[in-house]
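Narrative summary of target 7.
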Amino acid sequence: MRREVYDRTKNEIEQQMARHNLQKDMAEDYETSVRVSPADHVRDIKAQSLGLIVFLVLLIGGFGLAVWLY
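Modeled conformation, tokenized:
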């Protein structure tokens, strides 16, 4: 009986340690997955600004065409 109590306690401690290590590993994996390198960030900003410029040119061109046709 005494051995079973000890094994149960030992198993609970091992489970808690495994859960703690899993949470720590998951936190590290999350940090590495969300981290963006500066080069990637600059590329994303340039792509967004180019997309915005194209959108504005098309919008102004469409508005100018509509005014010219009427």
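The chain has two helices and no strands.
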